[in-house]
Amino acid sequence: MIDRRGFLAVAATLALAARARAIAVQRGLDLALVNGWFWTGTPGHPPTAIGIVEDRIAALGAAEVRGLTTARTRVIDLGGAFAMPAFTDGHTHFLRGAVTLSQPDLLSATSKADFAARLGAAARKRPGKWILGGTWDEQRMGGELPSHDWIDAATPDMPVAVPRTDLHSYLLNSVALKLAGITRDTPDPAGGVIVRDAVGNPTGIVKDNAKALVDRVVPARTDAEADAAVLEGIAYGLSKGLAQVHNPEIDWNTWYPLRRLHAAGKLDMRFYAFVPIADWEKMAAIVSEEGRGDDWLRWGAVKALADGSLGSRTALFYDDYTDAPGQRGVRVTSLEDLREWIGASDAHGLHVATHAIGDRANDDILSLYADVARANGPRDRRFRIEHAQHLRPTTIPHFAAQGIVASLQPYHAIDDGRWAVKRIGEKRLNGTYAFRSLIDSGAHVAFGSDWPVAPLDPLTGIYAGITRRTIDGANPKGWLPDQKVTAEQALVAYTRGNAYSGFMEDRTGKLARGYYADIVVLDGNLLTIDPLKIPEVKVLHTFVGGKQRFTSV
Predict the structure, then answer these.
(1) CA 58/CA 28 separation, integer angstroms
(2) Contact, 453 vs 135, CB < 8 A?
(3) Which one of 205, 405, 407, 501 has the fewest CB atoms closer than 10 angstroms to its CB?
(4) What's the pLDDT tens digit per position in 44-71?
(5) What does the alpha-carbon distance between residue 366 and residue 199 come to, in Å, rounded to a whole number?
(6) Is the pLDDT of residue 468 over 60?
(7) Domains in the chain: boundaries
(8) 202-208 and 242-247 as β-strands: parallel, antiparallel, unpaired?
(9) Helix, strand, or coil here: 537?
(10) In CATH, what is the architecture of 96-215?
(11) DSSP assignment string, 148-210
(12) For residue 1, what pLDDT is reported?
């Protein structure tokens, strides 16, 4: 049954389709993509051509496109290439990821010496500057958590605060520890951890809310630096076939450059910007005064944090970590604050997403969402849980029953699958990264990357969801293979799934008349290709709003 909002959305799409058709009849198509194989995202025989007027799809099928093509129409012959709705990444930390494009590559370091050498080289290139990236993973360097002793000699004069790949921990050198005022006498903040050695001295690792001790002393980027980084990130995303990203963030650092760039007409990619839920009143006031933006930059969404991460042992579980008896994770935000902020945000019509990794954190948020929905009354709210990473099997049906969007990142399964069993043991793997079970249950599922935690590359995510082959090569048949998804399920999650999760399913996520002409063209058919070859597929063209924003040919 279609509610009033859905009825109005359908009516608007039909009106736009009729307008685009009328313009095409009057003056011809602006752009025709011909001789392609188009997966539209809906059932039916795939068309071989699409016609575009302004920023919308006006025609589908070779005969219709040919009949509306005139001398003024730009025609691009796709040479039989595979085309589909351009990808949306449902979960990024966009500015952080964009900054890493110019930061040292630490993630591929394989030893202490290699790691230190890379930071030392970066320090020599940027004398006197904080080194804030890229990201590291101790599992790729033997499993030992790094400390300031690893890097002090290589970075003796400049502060270092580099995040773990999950963004829930920083590694600091001694200079940064001193600037942040972190000593053996500094207490752990609520929802945070300062890792200490056997005699109580800080090792240089700070987790979750303890990162704020460092963030407060790091010099802010200039507006020009932030804007340039975002533009670099946009160009990079377009090269990966992305037309849109969602940015569920816990700060305003990306919001401001996006606003500036949008005002200057420089956004070539669509953005859905979230801000910290603690600032819900500020966002509610912006919505009241300015609305929710437009389809290039939308807002009106807030993000909460229920817990930390599996890698940092701060994800919240019912039971102890297998490799750290006595530890069950942390509540990054108290239940009292979550209840108050989610309830108030929802009551003011804001879209709420909450980060939850551990099984207890997910159950807490599902229960809290149910309470808020009852208290505030029925409406189309589309609560989201970001990650939904470790679920008890009995929890999975609640997503569909409550209408909760599961915003998932398939690459995490092939990355964390190398070592997750060490953290939580075999028993709790049942319900871990449960992509297929959530889809089969009828839940709304959206896929993303968590960039820079994982690559900003939907093809890598699709490969991960289909194969579940861990990046160490240890699981050639797939890690927890019963949770593999089909190619079409993966494509839907990266297109229609994200469109729904961002309230844009009436104009993005599929190729249909009246929808935005957001299209990616690839040199391989993702529905028929050997899944092991998906990472080799190349993006040929990316169109956003009917304009070619990237081409490799």
Answers:
(1) 10
(2) yes
(3) 205
(4) 899 999 999 999 999 999 999 999 999 9
(5) 41
(6) yes
(7) 96-215
(8) unpaired
(9) coil
(10) Roll (3.10)
(11) HHHHTTTSSSS-BEEEBTTSSEEEE-HHHHHHHT--TTPPPPTTEEEEE-TTS-EEEEEEEGG
(12) 42
